[in-house]
Amino acid sequence: FxxxxxxxxxxxxxxxxxxxxxxxxxxxxxxxxTGTFAILxxxxxxxxxxxxxxxxxxxxxxxxxxxxDAQRVGVAAAVAFGSGALMLGMFVLQLGVLSTFLSEPVVxxxxxxxxxxxxxxxxxxxxxxSLPRQIGCFSLFKTLAAVxxxxxxxxxxxxxxxxxxxxxxxxxxxxxVRFRDRxxxxxxxxxxxxxxxxxxCFTSSLDTRYHVQIVGLLPGGFPQPLLxxxxxxxxxxxxxxxxxxxxxxxxxxxxxxxxxxxxxxIDSNQELLAHGASNLISSLFSCFPNSAxxxxxxxxxxxxxxxxxxxxxxxxxxxxxxLWLGPFFYYLPKAVLACINISSMRQxxxxx
Length: 352
Hints:
Radius of gyration: 20 Å
Subcellular location: Membrane
Protein name: SLC26A10 isoform 4
Number of helices: 15
Keywords: Membrane, Transmembrane, Transmembrane helix
Oligomer: single chain
Distance between the termini: 24 Å
Domain SLC26A/SulP transporter: 1-349
Organism: Pongo abelii
C-alpha cells in the first residue's frame, strides 16, 4: 500500500511496525490490527501527488529521484502528523461518543465499502497491469474503468500466479474456519505461498523472462527520527481532517464488529488516543497515515490471535524483515501480495 501513498515500498514496512507497536500498548480492540490501509493510502497519495507531482521530464538522475522521494515522504509524514494531532484533539474533547452513531448497518456498510476499495486497488497487481493512479472523486470507478480497458494487456504469467495463489489460499482459509476446533494451529497458507512463490520466481527468473512485477530491494534498518515539516501543515490540513475522520470511523467500526462477535467492549475515547498517538508518533519515523486494517485484522483472527500480544508478535516479524530478512523477499511477486490482501477479506465480502 506504500505505492498507493506514492512513497517507496519500504515505508510501508515502517508503517507496519511503529503504529502497531503503539496501538498494542494503548488500544482496547483485542483483535484489531493496525498499519497500512488502502483507502488511507489512496487519500494520502492524492495529497502527495497534488503537492509533489511527478516531473514532466521522463528520466530522472539517481539524486533527483532521491530528492523527489524525500519530498513525497515528507508530505506523507506531515499528513500523518496532522491527522494524529486532530485525533488527539478529539480525544481531549471526548468526541469518542460519536461512535454511538455507528449502528450495525452503518458499520457493515463502511467495512463492506472499504473492502470493495481494497479489492479494486489490488486489481492492477493481480492482473499484472501498470496503470496510472486515479485520484480525486470517483477514483474507485475510474480505477475500475482503467482496469477493464487495459484487461487485454494483462500479463498471462501474473494471471497464472494469481489464479494459483487464490486456488491455494481460499480452500486453506475455508479449512481453517471449518476445522478451527480440531486444528491445534491454523494452516499457515500465506507463509507457504510466500515461500513457494519467491523460490519459484527466483529459480525460473520470472521477473526477467516474463516481466513479473516483484517486490524488489527492501533497504534494511530504520529511518532517522525527523520532525515533519511544520510549514507543510497548513497545506495538508484539508487532507488530514478527512483522513482523521475515516481513520476513526473505520477503526471504530471494525473494533465494534469483533467486540460484538467475541463479547467484550471497547473504549471509543481510548481508541482516539491510541490511533492519534500511533499516527503522530510514527510520523516522526517517516510513516504515512495508518488505521485499523481489514486484511491484517482478518489474518490475525484467522490465525487465532485473541489479544494485542499478536500485534507485538507481528512487530517482531516486521522487525526481522527490516533488519535481516528483507533480501529474501526480493523475488516475491506483487500479485501474491494482492491475492493475500483480497483473500483475507473473505468475511467482509460475505456480509455484502
